[in-house]
Structure formats: C-alpha cells, structure tokens
Amino acid sequence: MQQTILDGRYELERLIGEGGMARVYAGRDLRLNRRVAIKIPHRHYLSDPEFLSRFRHEAQAAAMLSHPNIVDVYDVGQDGDVHYLVMEYVEGTNLKTIITREAPLPIARAVDLAAQIARGLHAAHRAGLIHRDIKPQNIIVTPDGRAHISDFGVAKSHLSTALTETGVAFGTVDYLSPEQAQGRPATPLSDVYALGVVLYEMLTGRLPFTGDNALAVAMKHVTEPPAPPRQLVPTIPPGLEALVLRALAKDPAQRPASALEFARMLRAYDQAAHQETLVSPGLPRPASPPPQPVGSARPAAPPASGTTGRVPIPPPRSAPSRAPSQDGIGCGVFLVGLLILAGVLGLVFVISTGALGQLFAGLGGGGSNGGGITPPPVTVETGTPTPTPQITVVVPDVTNYSSEAADQLLRQASLQPVRREAHNAEVAIGLVIGQDVPAGSLLPPGSPVTYTVSLGPQLVELPNVTRIPGVIARDRLTAQGLRVDVREEPSRDVDAGFVISQSPNAGLSVPLGSTVTIVVSRGDVVRFPDVIGLQREQAEQILRTTPGLTLIFVDEQGPDRLPGYERYADNEVVSAQIENGPGILNGDYVPRGSNIILGVKRPA
After folding, report:
1. Which of 133, 274, 522, 543 has its CA 20 to 30 A from that of 426?
2. Residue 133 annotated among the catalytic residues of the structure
C-alpha cells in the first residue's frame, strides 16, 4: 500500500478483503469523521480503459441507491493513478463465513436472510442495476441479523475459478445463472437465480453444482438439474424446497417474476409456516379462521403413504338440529325414548317453518282437548356437514430437469407424474421441455401432472445432391425440412449451375431445420482482380500474375474521352473490359483465357 490518504480525505487503515478485481480497506473519512470501506482496483486494471470506465459508471449508479439491505456507496474518485470507491462500513460477518461455520442454517433464519437480500435486489433492479455476482461472500450480516448486499461497483469475471483463502474471496461460477454461463447478458432474473443458489447453500450447507474446474461447473448450471434440497436435508419443508427449485429454474421465465415477487413468496411462506396450516408457500392468509394445526386434533389412524406429511382434519360430526329451549338436555334425550324424541323433532319442525304461532292458536281454541293434540309425523333433514378444509400441494417446476429428477420432485410433492416424449431442438435429450400444469399451481395430493421429455431434435438423413443442378438440389433439401445456403465458385470440372459439393456430407443425420451449404459451379471462369483504382504499373503487375487472364492493351484516355478527368490521378486505372466484349468491374467473373484491356488516365 503506497498511499495512506487519498485526496487528502480518505485514510486507509487496514486491508479487510481482496477479490479478483480489487482490494477493500477499512478506512476513515477525515472530513466527516466516520468509518468507511474503500475499494481500490488492482493495478493491472489501470491500463484497461473499459474497466475503469465501467468502474466509475457503475459506482456512480450504485451511489444513487439507498436501501437498508444494500451497502451505501458514498463517493468515487481518483488520486493520481489510484482509482477508488468509498462505501459504508458495515460491522458484521460475510454470509459465506456463516454458512461454512453453521450450515445448514435454521430454516426461519435462512428464509429471513434470503427475503432481505431479495428486497435489496429489487431496489437495485428498480434503479436499473443488475448485480451480476450475488454470492455469500458479497453479503454482510450484522450481529442483529440484517443482510447487506455489497460489491455493486465492479463488473465481475464470471468464469474465474472458485478459490477462497483467509481474507481473500474471488468471484466464482458457483452462483452463475445458466444464461450467463451461455454468454448471454445478465438480467434481474439472473440475480434471482444466484439468490436461489445462496438459499440452497444456506439450507443444505452444500452448493447445487460442483466440478473439477470452472467450465465444468458452468456447464452443470446450463444442463443438469440440482439435487432436490430435501435429499440432503430431509427436514426442509416441501413447500420451501419448491420455492428454491423454482428460483433455480434453467429458464428465467419459470423463475419468480422479480426479486420482489421472490421476497413476497418467502415472506408468505414464513407466515404460513408459523401457522402450520398451509402446505404450499406463497399463499395469502385465508380470510376465515384456518383449520387447526396438526397436533391439536390428531386422528387415530396414521396418514396414508405418499401424502404431504400433514394429517387431514376430520369433518365435524353432524348433529340433529334442536330448539333453543332444548339446550342442555344432552345425552339424556336418548334414554327418554322414541316418543319424546318425536315430540322434540316436531317442535323443531314447527319452529323452522314459522308455524309456531298457528300451533299456539290451535291450542287456544281446543277446549278440553288442549293437551291431547298429536303432532303429525314429520321428516327432518339434518344440515349439510361443514366441508373438510381442502389440503393442497404446490406444483414444482420440473422444466429442464431429467425425467428421473422430475418424477422425484413430483412424488415428493405428493403428485402423480405422467411422462410424455417429444422431439425438441432446443432442449437436450432426456430433459423436461415443459409441464401441463404451471409451476406454482395448487392441486390436491395425488393429482396427475404430465410433463414432456425431450427426445432431442428430429433427425434427417442428408441425400447426395452433388453433380445435379443447383435448383433441383435446393428443392430436394427444402422438401426434407432443411434450410439451404447456396454459394457459387468457379470450377474447371463441373458445368455451370451444377453442385460441386455439399456440407454436411451426404448420409449424415442432422436435426430438422439445419442449414446445408451447397457450392454451385460458376463454370470455368476467373475472378477479375481488384485493379481498377490502382496505378497502371501496379495493375499490370497483378494481371501478369493472374492465371487465365491476359493483358493485351492499355488505353490511355485524356479529357476528351474520360468524363470527370480531373477526379482521377495520373496513370490511374479507370476501367477494364474483355476484348470485343463488355466492360468489367473488380471482382467480376470472366471466362478463362479472356484478353483484358485497361483504361488509364493519361497524364496531363
């Protein structure tokens, strides 16, 4: 460290971290007398104008962010050849250290940290910033449990190998989204994917993908499904597992629509988990009182195999309606006998039909027979039983998983997998193309969910189209569902208009829709070299060394024969033609053996 104070204001105290792009120092803002963190790029980046420009631009953009879950950026500047970024100093521990020391983390803690990070990412995305390198090393957790996202100021090298040493953290591919691994631009949903990896690691203590080198890990992000977290830690609830796997979907469109939506889903899951009444996460709290949690009213029989793990609550017992005046009779009614029961039921009928007044009127006019009226026989329907609360499960996202992994995910969610197969040129053989029930939908346990597995592209065997007319060759290939790219080349052996060669070769099998290149003969012709515009001496030298052409005459042209005479340099070649034939231009094809005449500006 050559300098200890930058711009007379920022004092560097000690090195607290180092990455592949920069070092970070704890320091002090002498002007405001506050602790700060100061990031300084490595010296070998000082000769990279593009890096420095991006460093300044993104630092200035990050400085406009203000959110409780984002490390504030205070200043960006340059002192001599030292570029620096001044940030909020957050007292805490980076999440990677916490995971290494404590993982698997308690579920409530992991969900809370992930929701905080998601809210911070939403604030950045709303401001037009994509982090591109979300990983536990870039998350600082304070002693009171607040997560702070750091490192918005520098674009990361996504394909550097994973390496961690004491006090040193390099960017890795461990949290890289499939689209970034394929070289496509990062989007806000790339950050959501990376956060899904972080949550997976917090819950299991392991990364979803590992490999011998960075390229191997990157390819697994693109092609392989992650092991379901419950395989590693069976105590993870199925609903939370479904959320993690949705965030890790290969297709960004299958992930939560935004970081904010992911945060809301995590919060909704957390609330539902505290109630212990909902099977699927991400649902709003019901307006009516929820059913009793498991444990408050356990049924005598154990749950059937393959259920979600929650015991269905038995329906309330149906009881006959009774008049208000009969409350408190209790089970003694049963012992009185059928006669008294008939009277009670008759009274219920009278009350429910509004005939009570008529009954009393009849009794008043009955004279000596007042106590001897026998109620007519009635039939009383018991009320409809209160419906049992419907237990539902969340449909996991099985897109881009192998058939075996898709089966496992669906069965773990208490759903019945149904497999179909179809050709697909975009999805690798054996991976799931799509599913008929969208991920996140709610279904009763045991419901069938059909998914479609890729058979790879439909293959077509290439016919031999060489030595036939190019127009016929093109029609044959097009009829087989192939695209055709036609190129033309001179040939002394194949007549003009006939196919010289094809690529790929005949007999090979290629995916439907592939492009086949055919080379069609121009005949025995020679390409006229680019001599128009050159000086006469140089043009003559080129033509003398071009096989198949002979320069027989140089026609010097003066102002009387050369329009725009003043525009050309003396001795400049201004035209060319075949003897007794048409004029030609640079790059034109002319018959082999042609005699050439050049037109040249005559010096004034």
Report:
1. 133
2. yes
CA neighbor of 472 nearest in space, from 442, 497, 494: 497
Which residue is associated with the tokens 């042209």? 557
Q: Helix, strand or coil for residue 589?
A: strand
Catalytic residue among 75, 112, 133, 174: 133
Give the Cα separation of 179 and 188 in Å (integer). Answer: 12
User: Within the chain, which residue ranges are assigned CATH 1.10.510.10?
Assistant: 94-285
Helix (DSSP H) and strand (DSSP E) numbers for the chain: 15, 26
392-454 placed in CATH 3.30.10.20: yes
Task: Tell me the three state secondary structure of residue 242.
Answer: helix
Residue/partner pairs of 508-512 with CB below 8 Å, 24 or more apart:
508/461, 508/462, 509/459, 509/460, 509/461, 509/462, 510/459, 510/460, 510/462, 510/482, 511/425, 511/456, 511/457, 511/458, 511/459, 511/460, 512/423, 512/425, 512/457, 512/458, 512/459, 512/460, 512/481, 512/482
Please, which pLDDT band fits residue 271 given cuts at 50, 70 and 90?
Answer: confident
In the chain, ranges of CATH 3.30.200.20 domains:
1-89
84 contacts 38 by C-beta, under 8 angstroms: yes
Residue 216 CA to residue 222 CA, distance in Å, equals 10
Residue 49 phi, psi dihedral angles, 5° rounding: -60, -35
At the topology level, CATH places domain 94-285 in Transferase(Phosphotransferase); domain 1 (1.10.510)
* Among candidate residues 344, 9, 19, 281, the one with its CA nearest the CA of residue 150: 19
What is the rounded average pLDDT of the residues 262-286?
Answer: 62
Contacts of 366 by beta carbon, 8 Å cutoff, 6+ apart: 372, 373
Cα 268 from chain centroid?
22
What is the DSSP code string of 392-455?
-EEPP--TTSBHHHHHHHHHHTT-EEEEEEE--SSS-TTBEEEESS-TT-EE-TT-EEEEEEE-
Domain(s) of CATH 3.30.10.20: residues in the chain: 392-454, 459-521, 525-601
CATH architecture of 1-89: 2-Layer Sandwich (3.30)
Two structure tokens written together for 201? 């690691």
Mean of the per-residue pLDDT values of the chain: 79
Helix axes 238-247, 259-275, angle to 10 degrees: 170
Distance separating alpha carbons of residues 497 and 521, to the nearest angstrom: 5
Q: What is the CATH number of domain 525-601?
A: 3.30.10.20
pLDDT digits (tens, 9 = 90+) for 521-559: 999 999 999 999 999 999 999 999 999 999 999 999 999
Between helix 188-204 and helix 107-126 the angle, nearest 10°, is 170
